[in-house]
Amino acid sequence: MTPLCELFERIALEAGASILAVYDAGPTVCYKEDRSPVTEADERAEAIILGRLAAAFPHIPVVAEEAVASGCVPDISCGTFFLVDPLDGTKEFINRRDDFTVNIALIEGNVPVAGIVYAPALRCAYVADKGRAEKLAFGSGAHVGHRQAIRARARGPALTAVASRSHNSSETEAFLAVHGVTDYTSVGSSLKFCLLAEGRADVYPRFGRTMEWDTAAGNAVLNAAGGSVVRLDGSRLLYGKMRQADDSDFANPHFVAWADMSSESALSSSLVAESVPDIRPKA
C-alpha cells in the first residue's frame, strides 16, 4: 500500500488501542448538545489522531467530530483536508457490540480519495488510496496477519442490502420494498460501506441524519473498490459542505451507496426520491 495508507494504519491502530482500553474498563457516557452520546474513548482517540496528523501534515486542516462539537472548525477553503470520526458507532460501543470503528479520510476537491475504517474489536480494517482498496486482518498485537485486495461485486438479479442497526427507519423499509429487496443485514458504523466494498452486499440506503466524518472513510473505501455513493437525485455525495441553507455545516443529505453504480441504479435512486420525504433535521 501507499505511504499514506501505512500512516493511516499506524494512527488508527494507536487510536484503536486507546478505545479498547476504555471498552474493557467500561466507558463513562456523556451527552452533547444534540443529545448524541460521547465517551472518554472518543476524546482520547481523537487527541491521538489529531496529534499524529498534525505531525505528519502540519499544513493540512483536520475536521474532527469532537473538535467541531466544541466549536473548533478549521479553514478548509484550500480544498484539501482530513475528516476524522475517532469512534464511529458510539452506541454500539456503549452497548458492548463490536461493530464500532475508527474513521480517517483525506478529502481533495470535495471527494474522499483515501481513508481507513478500522474495527479494533473485530481486529480488521479497510484501507484505500489511489484507486485500490484492501481488507486487513490483524493477528497478535499490531501485526497484519492477512492483507487482501477487495472489489465491489457486479449487480445480480437480486439485491442484498445493508442497513443501520441503530438508525433504521420507515423510509429505509420503503426503499427496500421499492427495489424488491428481501435479503438484508444490519450493522453499525462505517462497516456498512465496507460490506459493499468487499462484495458481501449491493446497496446501503441511508434516510437518516449523518455527518461527513461518519461517511467519508467508508465512502473512500467503497469508491476505490468500484462502488459509489450518491444523493437521491443520482449526483455524487460531496464533502466540505459549508453554509448550507437547509442544514448545519458538514451535514449529509440522504444518500444511497451502491456496489455497482449502473445507470439503472442511478435511475432507481432518483425515482425513489419522489416517494421518500425529506426528514433531515433543519439547522
UniProtKB/TrEMBL annotation:
Residues noted as binding substrate in the record, renumbered to the chain: 65, 87-90, 214
EC number of the protein: 3.1.3.7
Keyword Magnesium attached: yes
Annotated PROSITE patterns: IMP_1, IMP_2
UniProt: Mg(2+) 1 binding residues: 65, 85, 87-88, 214
Membrane topology: Peripheral membrane protein
Residues binding Mg(2+) 2, per UniProt: 85, 88, 214
Reactions performed catalytically: adenosine 3',5'-bisphosphate + H2O = AMP + phosphate
Molecular function, one GO term: magnesium ion binding
Primary localization: membrane
One of the record's GO cellular component terms: plasma membrane
Class of enzymatic activity (EC top level): hydrolase
Places the protein is found: Cell inner membrane
GO biological process, one term: sulfate assimilation
Domain of life: Bacteria
Cofactor: Mg(2+)
The entry's keywords: Cell inner membrane, Cell membrane, Hydrolase, Magnesium, Membrane, Metal-binding
Gene3D superfamilies from the UniProt entry: 3.40.190.80, Fructose-1,6-Bisphosphatase, subunit A, domain 1 (3.30.540.10)
InterPro entries: CysQ, CysQ/Inositol_MonoPase, Inositol_monoP_metal-BS, Inositol_monophosphatase-like, Inositol_monophosphatase_CS
Main function: Converts adenosine-3',5'-bisphosphate (PAP) to AMP.
Similarity-based family: Belongs to the inositol monophosphatase superfamily. CysQ family.
Name of the protein: 3'(2'),5'-bisphosphate nucleotidase CysQ
Species: Sinorhizobium glycinis
